[in-house]
Amino acid sequence: MSTPNQHRQWTYYLETVGAWALALLWILPLLYAFWSAFHPREYAITFELFAPLTLDNFKTAWNQAPFARYFLNTFILVTMILAAQFVLCTLAAYAFARFEFPGKNIAFVMVLLQLMIMPEVLIVENYVTMSKLNLVDTITGIGLPYMASAFGIFLLRQTFKTIPQELEDAARVEGCSRLQILWKVYVPLARPTYIAYGLVSVSHHWNNFLWPLVITNSVSTRPLTVGLAIFGAPESGVDWSIITAGTLLAVAPLLIAFLLFQRQFVQSFMHAGIK
Amino acid sequence: MPAAIFLIAFTYYPAVATLAKSFFSQGTALKPSEFVGFENFEYMLGDDVFWKVAWNNIMYAVGTIPISIALAILMAVWVNGKLPLRSLTRMAYFTPTILPMIAVANIWLFFYTPDIGLLDQVSAVFGLPSHNWLGDPDTVLGCIIAITIWKEAGFFMIFYLAALQTLPLELEEAARLEGASRWYYFRRVMFPLLMPTTLFVLINAVINSFKLVDHLFILTKGGPDNASSLLLYYIYEVAFSFLDQAYASTLTVVLLLALALIAVGQFYFLDKRVHYR
Fold first, then answer.
1. What pLDDT score does A130 carry?
2. Would you call A97 an interface residue with chain B, using a CB distance cutoff of 8 Å?
3. SS3 B24
4. What domains can be seen in chain B, in order of their start residue?
5. Structural domains in chain A, sorted by start
6. B89 and A111 in contact by Cβ < 8 A?
7. Looking at the complex, does the CB of residue B20 fall below 8 Å from at least one CB of chain A?
8. Which of 131-150 (A) contact B at CB < 8 A?
9. Could you say which of A17, A164, A193, A242 is the most buried, measured as most Cβ atoms within 10 Å of its Cβ?
């Protein structure tokens, strides 16, 4: 028989091992991707500790698909969405936080409705709208449905509401206009929220797939995810090492950013989630 | 309110237009679209694929949600406690969250490949025969579920971690002094206190189970025989492969109804949260 103390010690060890095992299981697919991307193809499925390392897979992948173009497209897309979201959501959030206008509550509930009905669900009808606007197969077309983000409006409204009214009053006494107040008082004070929302938005749109797939049909507009899907399609007959190399290329910027700013990322997602 | 214009253009208008379109037939060059009332809906009720896809979606939700939430709580408790290599472990749990579903599918595809895939290699060690995981209607949905759990658990962990950090330490101390076991403490103290988080995560998870279909494009394309197709994927297929936008709109209405049901729950819940902030 063990004493309660020993018992506690044992569960502690057991749990530590369990936590590590789960962590290993969770990171394993990624580790495997690294393994097969950095080794010649004959080692993709056999594991030898001293298999020769190579960068050839990355070279082949890079040359087989227009990754440079895809990167550029994704980059433009993400920047455009983020900039538009910041402007639109800031204005809307300020209005909801500080203005009184008829129908405000109903309008706000309507905004929140978008949290449920995401643009993904409405691909069919949005596609029709885009073709009417002549925006099919443009990067603007990919970004447009996401620009007024209910999530962003909600998040910023909550933040703006915590900023004391006295600050705004003081600024007005100094002769600032409402837009100046917004720009000089609210925006700087809400910086953590902007960073959090920015990180969440960038990683979401970097990874988004379904809508871009529907709306694009040429190399010059396809973002990385869609390009990667075509590149990795089994019919295209590329081998494993090259697919994993291409996959790693596509996720590298986000992954590196995540590893460098891990704490910031985790806190942003946390901040954005708690609301 | 420029934001309002965008919302109207890309959320309300499409939602209403979808509803309207679902009552019309698909127009062709010879026969323009005309009002058909509930004909599309009748067609849907008789469509075996629709029922299969709807059932799959329910199974997908039932398969992913409880397990990923349970794992998320477990991860959060571990990472919140005094664990050696804590931040490394937390990183491992969270990493899948920031990977695109497409990349994830590319990597996992390899695990499921017959004969040379990792899963088959492991089962070969135990002398089990090779199995076409994604080609077998009985296992394919399970494979899809496993990926989704892997992808989501770390994301949900974050919310539990945030909640755990707000729990007062005295509670655990008190429970220990009273001689309560950890399991008892979890069941009677921690879990009830985490309830708001669980509700929030639950709603998110339900929405995700309708929304997360990206990996299907790489792994199965809904096959074999629609055994792994989900509602949103079916909508995509009907609208852009079979080019029947009227029927796709009808299906979208069903999806919107499902989301509206969840929305009612969400608003009730959100109101409370916003209130106490």
1. 78
2. no
3. strand
4. 47-275 (1.10.3720.10)
5. 60-274 (1.10.3720.10)
6. no
7. no
8. 144-145, 147-148, 150
9. A242
